[in-house]
Amino acid sequence: MKERIYSLDKLRAVMMLLGVIFHASLIYSFMPTEAWELHDPNSRSYFFSGLILLLHTFRMPIFFILAGFFAALIFYKKGARKMLENRFKRIFLPFVVALITLMPIYKYSLKYGQLVFMPDVDLHTFPSLSWDIFNPLIINYLWFLNYLLIFIAVMVTLALSKSYNSVNLTRLKSIFRLSVQNQPISIIWLSLLPIITLYFMDSPFAKTDFYLFPHFPSLLFYFVFFLFGWLLYCTENTLKLFHEKIWFNLVLATVLVVADGMLMLYQVDNYFYLKIMLYSVASWLYCFGFIGLFLKYFNRKSNVMQYLSDASYWVYLTHLPVIVVIGSMFVDLPLTAIEKFLSLIFITYALTILSYHYFVRYTFVGEFLNGKKHLPTT
User: 304 in a domain, yes or no?
Assistant: First the structure.
């Protein structure tokens, strides 16, 4: 695989940028979640609960598939040492720096938001500063970087082990090819392990793990997708198989998500197994559908998408404190939930992308995140 696959770069950027929409939706939803307590008391809509379920079904699974794909690409093209050096600079160091700098800011913004979103509290009230915001064991939205580091360590160890020889790899690739073929039947058995992990999470959807030492079922759920992406790179001529049944997969996935959402909306408690099956199968259908969609229709170089791809890492790392603070400022405005939401995501995208352009892209921070960029010549 010598040519650059622009479509997968674009898809990865889109999944990262959708994080802004996902987290902004939480404020205006009725979605019960252990991980998010901030809900606008004056402006909420079931539309955002549905949007959260929809995005949560495919956003991170696709992201981990692509992370596995690109990790394998670097490993097999440049070797284990270069790959580990690259991931150390692009993942481990940003993770540590963000944990020290951005995470306390985010945790303090949450404390501020919890005050503001309470009724009859002055907007200018600020919480006291406490040491718990510096607790490195609670990593909040940086969990995905923690997972990536673990997955990379596991896969590099396996790839360098004697058991991962050419015979076993060939056998594994044959099995993998069968898993991609014969859609959508193959998607059913691909869903089995995610279904099992959801059962042990005791949750109808994948839980977010906010701790440095992860919960094993959550870790295993996303490792399945990372491993899939790794094998996708290793197995020749499989990407073209994603061109099949694109719209069928996307439409069927949407039908399943709607059915899953209706069960949650009407609080039907007796269909837990049905819920986890709907969620898992829909996740894989969306993965196949969106990967196929981008491979078929968006595999061309685009300067705009390349720029957004570069910016997406910074946007994701910095967007949540912005969302919490700006969302808090909107609490008492006489606006509907959709008006607040659209204003919030516009301001968040504007602030994070502008800060990337003027303070990050051509500086040591930009080089730290994406590699060195040169100022355009006139």
Answer: yes
d(CA 358, CA 349): 14
**DSSP secondary structure code for residue 215 in this structure:** -
Tell me how many domains the chain contains: 1
Whether the full predicted model's pTM is greater than 0.85, yes or no, is yes
pLDDT at position 36: 78
Does residue 376 form part of some domain?
Answer: no
129 within domain boundaries: yes
- What gap in Å lies between CA 304 and CA 295, rounded to an integer? 18
N- to C-terminal Cα separation, the chain? 35
Who contacts 306 (Cβ-Cβ below 8 Å, separation ≥6)? Answer: 9
Place of tokens 């946007």: 315
> Chunked in runs of 10, what are the mean pLDDT values of the chain (378 residues)?
76 96 94 75 91 96 96 92 92 95 92 77 68 90 96 92 66 77 80 94 88 93 95 86 90 96 79 92 96 93 91 96 93 92 97 95 86 67
C-alpha–C-alpha distance, residues 141 and 129, integer Å: 21
Tell me the H-state helices in the chain: 6-27, 46-78, 80-87, 93-100, 102-116, 143-160, 166-180, 185-190, 192-201, 216-234, 246-265, 272-297, 303-329, 337-359, 364-370
Q: Are 21 and 341 in contact (CB under 8 A)?
A: no
CA gap 111, 118 in Å, rounded: 11
375 within a domain of the structure (yes/no): no
Residue 335's beta-bridge partner residues? none
Domain containing 15 equals: 6-370
- 257: Cβ contacts below 8 Å, ≥ 6 apart: 53, 54, 57, 278, 282
